[in-house]
Structure formats: C-alpha cells, structure tokens
Amino acid sequence: MDQQIILQQFEFLEKKTEQLIEACKRREVQINELKQANDLLTSQLNEKLAAERQSEELKALVRSKIDSLMGRLSEFAGE
C-alpha cells in the first residue's frame, strides 16, 4: 500500500475516534442530567407521599374527634 493511503486511513480513524469520544461525552452529560432530574422527581414524590400520609393522619384524627363528639351528643340527647 501506498504510504499516503495508509496515512489517510489513520486520519479517517482518528476523526472517527474523536467523533465517538465526543458522542460518549455528550451521552455522559445527558445521563448525569437525567440522573439529577430523576433525583429531583424522587424527592418531590417522597415529599408528596409524606404530605398525603400526614393528611390521612389528620383526617383520621378529625374523624375520631367528630365520632367522639357525636357519641357524647348521643349520650346527652338520650338522657
């Protein structure tokens, strides 16, 4: 093979290698961005679940208090 052809092939391979490296770097940045977005969404979901849990506990407490008051009123009305 002619030396010029071999040099051209190496140059082609170098360009393709650089393109591959750049593509990998872009993918790595995208993956990191997606991980950060996932972490944020997970955090928001956990906060929402905690708020829902707290709301359910409050509802149960209110329901219990109302039931207690209704029972006392029933006892009072029955006397």
First-last Cα distance:
113 Å
Strand content: under 5%
Regions with pLDDT < 50 over 5+ consecutive residues?
A: none
Count of DSSP H/I helices: 1
Radius of gyration from the alpha-carbon trace, in angstroms: 34 Å
Short recap of the structure:
With 79 residues, the chain is mainly α. It contains one helix and no strands. The model has no long low-confidence stretch (mean pLDDT 95).
Molecular structure report:
The protein is mainly α and 79 residues long. It contains 1 helix and no strands. The longest helix has 76 residues, at 3-78. The N and C termini lie far apart (113 Å). The mean pLDDT is 95.
What is the secondary structure topology, with strand pairs?
Blueprint: H1 3-78
Question: What labels describe this entry?
Answer:
1 helix, 79 residues, mainly alpha, rod-shaped, 0% strand, single chain
